Amino acid sequence: MPTELLQHKGKVVVSDFIAPWWARNRHVQTIFPRFFQKRAALSYRREDFSLPDGDKVNLVWVGEPLAANALVVMFHGLEGSIDSHYCHNTAAYLQRQGFAVVVMHFRGCGGKPNLLARAYHSGETGDAWTLLNYLQQQYPDLPKLAIGFSLGANMLLKLLGERPEQRIIQGAMAVSAPLLLNECADSINHGFARRYQKYLLKSMLKNLSLKMQSIDYRGLINITEEQIPSIKTFRDFDQNITAPLHGFKDANDYYQRCSALPFLHKIKTPTLIIHAKDDPFMNENVLPKAEQLSAFVRVEVSEQGGHCGFMQGTPWSPEIWLQPRSARFFQSILASNNTVKNEKL
């Protein structure tokens, strides 16, 4: 296990991220990087990836795996894609550090609608597990790491807890994970945070409406296309769409079964969780306690940072602390594994 995890295994520690004076507001941290962070140069190729049920998702490859030190599998957030600022620039940064990156777009994301009525949600780990096994078959000798943002972070942590004996992913990083979905659904429905909810719901409902024009949803959900405008909150969406479409009794059943926090004590993969107390998408109740962690999980908490923000630098030249932090963590995983290999020789 990497030295930094050995020192603080199973603990919640203070992050070394410190917000600059001009970016101590949670909304500045959350919104500013999207519009003012310089977009890194990035070239990539796309690939359609078939799933066992006949559906497809879109993969984005950054760099050549066989020429890289390791492959980082990246999972985006709600309604995200390679175009999301946190995915785009983190992928570019990691490539410059010698990593190849593959971004898995969840069903219906990345600009391409999926073929089936079902979509994606915070606890859908089956698709990611299918991809990981495919990557292991294609690149059996290449070290594999993973990073998830927001919804993708919750999904990744749940997957690692469901499969504690997995050996495909050697290290994982989760950023701004909504570890208790019920708390998050309530928090984002208050104050200024409702603007984030409204923005994301608009995209979710638009995609649903488009799919309903070509897929028959009768018998799958209890809402018609004409009733879509009545959905005003994430809880409404999860109650009427997510739950029935994916086999949950209701929104509360979905939240309970798919929140990652109860899975953290089962994880046996070196894992780093990054979280800010001022995350506007959730409240501090989602923060795990040390006794809820396995010895392989480290949680770093900062006072500020917003949601997938963690911005430093100057207003005219902002820098994202997450990028070098992710590279440093992944490099420590590789260095630790190489040390173990050498000791066995």
Automatic annotation (TrEMBL):
<feature type="domain" description="AB hydrolase-1">
    <location>
        <begin position="71"/>
        <end position="313"/>
    </location>
</feature>
<keyword id="KW-0719">Serine esterase</keyword>
<dbReference type="InterPro" id="IPR000073">
    <property type="entry name" value="AB_hydrolase_1"/>
</dbReference>
<comment type="similarity">
    <text>Belongs to the AB hydrolase superfamily. AB hydrolase 4 family.</text>
</comment>
<feature type="active site" description="Charge relay system">
    <location>
        <position position="150"/>
    </location>
</feature>
<feature type="active site" description="Charge relay system">
    <location>
        <position position="279"/>
    </location>
</feature>
<feature type="active site" description="Charge relay system">
    <location>
        <position position="307"/>
    </location>
</feature>
<protein>
    <submittedName>
        <fullName>Alpha/beta hydrolase</fullName>
    </submittedName>
</protein>
<dbReference type="GO" id="GO:0034338">
    <property type="term" value="F:short-chain carboxylesterase activity"/>
</dbReference>
<keyword id="KW-0378">Hydrolase</keyword>
<dbReference type="InterPro" id="IPR000952">
    <property type="entry name" value="AB_hydrolase_4_CS"/>
</dbReference>
<dbReference type="Pfam" id="PF00561">
    <property type="entry name" value="Abhydrolase_1"/>
</dbReference>
<dbReference type="GO" id="GO:0047372">
    <property type="term" value="F:monoacylglycerol lipase activity"/>
</dbReference>
<dbReference type="InterPro" id="IPR050960">
    <property type="entry name" value="AB_hydrolase_4_sf"/>
</dbReference>
<dbReference type="InterPro" id="IPR012020">
    <property type="entry name" value="ABHD4"/>
</dbReference>
<dbReference type="InterPro" id="IPR029058">
    <property type="entry name" value="AB_hydrolase_fold"/>
</dbReference>
